[in-house]
Amino acid sequence: xxxxxxxxxxxxxxxxxxxxxxxxxxxxxxxxxxxxxxxxxxxxxxxxxxxxxxxxxxxxxxxxxxxxxxxxxxxxxxxxxxxxxxxxxxxxxxxxxxxxxxxxxxxxxxxxxxxxxxxxxxxxxxxxxxxxxxxxxxxxxxxxxxxxxxxxxxxxxxxxxxxxxxxxxxxxxxxxxxxxxxxxxxxxxxxxxxxxxxxxxxxxxxxxxxxxxxxxxxxxxxxxxxxxxxxxxxxxxxxxxxxxxxxxxxxxxxxxxxxxxxxxxxxxxxxxxxxxxxxxxxxxxxxxxxxxxxxxxxxxx
Length: 301
Hints:
The protein is built from 4 helices and 17 strands. The chain is mainly beta. Strand 10 and strand 11 form a beta hairpin.
C-alpha cells in the first residue's frame, strides 16, 4: 500500500575558504524533527573539516589522499598548558562540512509549515581565544528561509558571505537542499503562502562618515506582521534580494480582504542611523518610507 505521508530530507553543505582559521567553528539554530522546537547545533573546528583543495593544488587532490573520516567526534588537541595546540599551516585552504538529516526528516504538515514560517537561520561564527581558552563569538549571519514554503519544487539554494569579521576567513558558503517541496498541493491551497520579495534600493544618499550604521529595510505587512532584511554597507545602491513568506490562508477571509483594501504594505529604509553608546532612551532616527497598495490581489483575474 502506498504511503500518503511525505517527508523532507534536508541537507546542509558548508564551505569555507580560510587562511590560518583552523580553530573556527560554526553554531546554528535548527528545528527538532519530533517536537519542532528550536535547538542549537555546532560543527567541528574547521581543522577537522574535509579538505577540498589547497592553493596550488588541484581540486579534491587533498580529499582523495585523506584517510576515511571517523564519524566519532574527536576531542580538540591540547598543548601542554591546556590550551589548543598551534597549527603552522599558512596555505589558504578550502574545506567543507556537510550535515544531513536523513535519520530525522521533517514530516510535511501544517504544524511544520507554521513553525517554518517563523524560521530565521542564524549562523554564529566562533574562534578559539588562546588567552581565555574558550570559543569567542566573532560574527553572526542571518538567513530568512521562510520562502522555502513558496516554491512548488524541491529546494536547492546557495548563499555566499565574503565580508566577515573573522579575518582568517575569505568566504563562507552554504547550500541547502531538500528532496520534496515544503508544502503538499493540499496544504498550499489551505495555507496560501504569500511571498514578499525586496530586491534593492537605489539613489540612496551615500554617507562616508563612519558614525553611520549599515543600511537595512523593515517590511510591515498589511496585518501588522513585519520582518527585517540583512544589513548592507553604506552605498547609493543596496541589493538585498530578500524573500519572506506569510501564510495568509489561516486568516479570517473577511478581515484580511478589508486589510488588503484599506491598508498598505510599508517599507522603511533605515539609512540614517548613527552609532551611539546610549542604552536607555535610544534616539529615533528618520527613515525613508515607501508604501504599496495590495488591493489588486483581491481581483480574481
